[in-house]
Design a protein that fits this description.
Layout (H helix, E strand, L loop, with lengths): L6 E5 L2 E5 L4 E2 L12 E2 L16 E3 L2 E8 L4 H5 L4 H10 L1 E4 L7 E7 L2 H19 L6 E6 L3 H18 L17 E7 L4 H12 L2 H8 L4 E10 L9 E8 L5 H15 L14 E5 L28 H7 L3 E7 L1 E6 L11 E6 L2
Antiparallel strand pairs: 1-2, 3-4, 5-6, 6-8, 7-8, 9-10, 9-15, 11-12, 11-14, 12-13, 15-16
Helix pairs in contact: 2-3, 6-7
Length: about 350
């Protein structure tokens, strides 16, 4: 971590600098409940927390925090060390539900400032380890229109017929036609309550989306292919280019504003200034394992040992390939590693353009 550029953590709309004093890692114990421990954050003990309600009780003060059960172990720490240290440092008591039981972490103490300090420290721990969780959902524009699927399958057949002699080119590295999509951004939603909140936040975007689209679907054209890296002879990802038919930037604007909204709610981490919209058609992560997704799922191929392919002939012969046109009318909150009755990802929520 750069001293002058510390990690910034968004907690319920408030920004905190993460100043790590020390970080330790422990081997997994037999009950696999404690896989890591984060040392105390450099936060003022009397810092006031205004993101949660701290209630006065007969014995002092109390605050309940909604925390996904998968994150309990990071608050407990190895053999309970993290919880004991937090309780000792803040002079509070921290009650945590049993592992696997969804509920609230309850913090009690004699002084409101102490409870507030404990809440803030717990939140920083939660957000720090949340960032290490694999994402579970993603916002997507589906490209699985029948006409585009037909064009993609013809593209696949033509490439395999004309370029299968090129290094690394074979059938398993092609995308599943039913799951063609544009990824807008990824989210780690760790329980049903977080999924519901994400759906609610997506609904909040309906007005600005319809203002951009003027309440109508967007006519898109999927034409041309491009590669991710700078060497066409060693390519891992080949993608189709997607544009609005009228050449406007409406699709890009919707994607960027969606990310802006979800980042402001603390549900998404901004990776780029603008969303790079691309429809993956070939990805070497798929190689020999059709269950792997272009969203980064684990499989036989990993990021370190994946085998690139030579895309020069594909780019030369199919660089301007027309996959098709269709009307896009929805943005979806899609669930990773899932399939619905159409073959696309299962949707947890959606907003229509019209």
């Amino acid at each position: 971590m750069e001293v002058l550029r510390p990690t910034i953590i968004n907690i319920n709309g408030r920004m905190y600098r993460k100043n790590i004093i020390k970080e330790e890692h422990y081997e997994e114990e037999e009950d696999f409940s404690y896989m890591g421990q984060q040392e105390s954050e450099d936060l003022a003990e009397d810092e006031i927390c205004d993101t949660h309600s701290i209630d006065k009780t007969e014995k002092g003060y109390r605050c309940a925090i909604d925390v996904p059960s998968v994150l309990y172990k990071y608050i407990i720490g190895k053999k309970g060390e993290t919880r004991r240290r937090l309780e000792s440092d803040t002079k509070t008591s921290i009650s945590i539900p049993k592992q696997g039981v969804e509920g609230q972490i309850v913090i009690t103490g004699s002084h409101k400032a102490a409870v507030s300090s404990a809440v803030t420290r717990v939140e920083v721990l939660i957000e720090s380890f949340r960032r290490k969780q694999p994402f579970t959902h993603f916002l997507s524009f589906p490209l699985n229109d029948p006409k585009v699927q037909e064009g993609f399958l013809q593209f696949k057949d033509d490439v395999l017929q004309q370029c299968s002699q090129d290094h690394g080119v074979e059938g398993s590295i092609f995308q599943n036609a039913a799951k063609l999509h544009l990824t807008i951004g990824t989210l780690a939603l760790l329980n049903e309550m977080e999924v519901r909140k994400a759906c609610e936040h997506l609904q909040e975007c309906q007005n600005f989306i319809r203002n951009i689209t003027e309440g109508k679907p967007l006519l898109l054209e999927v034409t041309g292919i491009e590669y991710m890296n700078d060497d066409p002879a060693m390519v891992d990802v080949l993608y189709a280019k997607v544009n609005v038919k009228d050449r406007s930037d409406k699709l890009q604007t919707i994607a960027d504003q969606l990310v802006e909204h979800f980042v402001s709610k603390g549900l998404m981490v901004r990776e780029w200034d603008r969303v790079k919209l691309h429809g993956t058609v070939i990805n070497t992560l798929f190689r020999k394992d059709s269950t792997v997704e272009d969203t980064g799922g684990p499989g036989r191929q990993t990021m370190s040992d994946r085998e690139a392919f030579d895309a020069r002939n594909i780019l030369k012969k199919f660089g301007a390939y027309r996959f098709g046109e269709f009307e896009l009318n929805t943005v979806l909150l899609s669930q990773r590693y899932s399939t619905d009755c159409t073959g696309y990802y299962t949707s947890a929520g959606s907003v229509n353009f019209s």
